[in-house]
Amino acid sequence: MKVLTVNFLTCAVKACKTSPLSFPLHFQDAELEQSDIEYNPSFLRNILPRVDWEALKVTANELGFTTVPAEKPNPAPTPTNPDTNPTETIKESPEAQPADDKVMRDLHTLLLETEVREGKMVCGNCGHEYKIKEGIANFLLPSHLV
Amino acid sequence: MLPTPSTAHVDFNRIYEPAEDSYLLLDTLSSTAETQFLTQRFGQTEGQNAPSPTPTILEVGTGSGVVLAFAAANARTIFGRYDVLALGTDMNRFACQATKQTALDACQGLDEDGAAASKDRGAVILLATLNADLTGPLRSGVVDVLIFNPPYLPSRDVPGFPGGVSEDVKTTIGAFEHDSHLLSLSYEGGVDGMQVTDRLLDQLPFVLHNERGVAYVLFCQQNKPDEVMERIRAWGEEWSVENVRRSGKVAGWEKLCVIKIWKN
Predict the structure, then answer these.
(1) Are B262 and B214 in contact (CB under 8 A)?
(2) Model's pTM, two decimal places?
(3) How does strand A114-122 pair with strand A26-34?
(4) Does residue B97 lie in a domain region?
(5) B127 touches chain A (CB under 8 A)
(6) Domains: count for chain B
(7) Does B82 touch chain A (CB under 8 A)?
(8) Which domains does chain A have, with CATH numbers?
(9) Which of A39, A55, A68, A99 has its CA 20 to 30 A from that of B199?
(10) Do B132 and A40 touch (CB under 8 A)?
(11) Domain span at residue B168?
C-alpha cells in the first residue's frame, strides 16, 4: 500500500466520517518498503492538486520523513505532449532549479515509492485500528461497528 | 482490441473467475463512445500548462482484478492520458492479493512490446488494494471513476461478512466451506440481486468527485435496471444516467447491461 493512499482514506465507521479527527488515519508500527519507480515530474505535478497537504505532513511525520515542505510546492510547468513518452520530457534543463527538483524527488519517494508492508492505521476519533498485513489493509469492521 | 490482462495466477476456487459480466465491462470501457467520454473528461491536452489532476480509478469488488488492471494498463486509450491512480477494494483478502498481481503484471506486460510500451512505465500507479466493504474507508469526493461488477444474482439473503471469521473458525469450518463462502460473496445479491448494489448506489454521491465523478455499474435483467435508472434520475438534475452497454443473447437468461451514472 502506497503512502499516498492514506491521503484518500478515512475511518470506515460511519459515525466518524463527519469528524475532522478521522482524517488522516494515523500510522503506527509501520514497516516500510521502497519500490523503484521512474521519476516523472509531470506526473507528480498532476498528483499534487489531489493531495491534502496538511494531512500529508502529519503522515510524513509519523513515518519519519522530514523533508516535506510546509507549503504545497508549485513546480514550474513541464510542457506535456500526450503522444510522447512523458519520461522523455524530463531532460535535465540547465535552468531547472535544484531546490525545486530536490523537493519533488523527495515527494516522489514518499508518495509513490514508499509502500507500507506491515503495521496499522488508527482513527483519531474512535481509536479503531486497521491492520496492514503484507501490504493489504483490513477495513472490514466487526459486526457491532457496521 | 486492447489486451485482456492475464489472470493465470488466480485461484478460482476462492476468487470469482472473469466471465461475461467482467468482459462486458471491458467492452464498455474500451468502446468508442466511452473512451471519447472519458478522454474528454480526463484527458490531458497537448502542451497543457496547468497541472491536470490525476484521475483516481476505484474498482469496488475487484475479484481477480481483471477490470481494474485493464483500465489501468490501457489508460492512454481509455482516459486519454498515461497517469492514473488505481485503487481496488474487495471483501475477500485473497482477491486483494490477486488484484495487485494482475494489475502489476498487466501494466508491466505493456513494456514487453518495446517502444510503444515503455511510454506507460511509471505512469500507472496502483495505490493499494484494500480489504474493505464497498467504498467503506474512502474519503468524500476522492473517486473520479468508479467501476462495480456487483454480486447481482437474486438470492435468499446476502452472505455474511468474512470480517468476523477468525482463523480458528476457518480451520473448524474447513477450507472448502470457507472458499465457497468467499465465492458466494461475489455473486449472491439478496432480494432482486440488489441488496449490495443498493448500498453502493447510496455511497456514490459521497465518494464520487463533485464535478468529474462517473460510475459504471453492471446489472442483470432481474435487478430491474430501468427502475434503478428512474430512481437515480430523482437524485437531482446534476446527475445523469444512461444504459451504455447491453449484452447480446449469448448470456441466456442472464441478460446484462452496464449503466453509467455521472455528475454533469
Answers:
(1) yes
(2) 0.90
(3) antiparallel
(4) yes
(5) yes
(6) 1
(7) yes
(8) 3-76+93-145 (2.20.25.10)
(9) A55
(10) no
(11) 20-42+52-120+142-263
- The contacts of residue B185 (CB under 8 Å, 6+ apart) are B91, B92, B151, B159, B162
Asked if B47's CB is within 8 angstroms of A81's CB, the reply is yes
C-alpha gyration radius of chain A: 17
**B250 within a domain of the structure (yes/no):** yes
Would residue B129 count as lying in a domain?
no
Q: Do A139 and B131 touch (CB under 8 A)?
A: yes
Q: How far apart are CA B53 and CA A47, in angstroms?
A: 6
Question: Does residue B229 belong to the interface with chain A, where contact is any CB pair within 8 Å?
Answer: no
CB contact under 8 A, A130 and B161: no
> What pLDDT tens digit does each residue of chain B (264 aa) get?
888 999 999 999 999 999 999 999 999 999 999 999 999 999 987 666 678 999 999 999 999 999 999 999 999 999 999 899 999 999 999 999 999 999 988 887 654 443 344 444 446 789 999 999 999 999 999 999 999 999 998 998 888 766 544 444 455 557 778 888 888 888 889 999 999 999 999 999 999 999 999 999 999 999 999 999 999 999 999 999 999 998 876 555 568 999 999 998
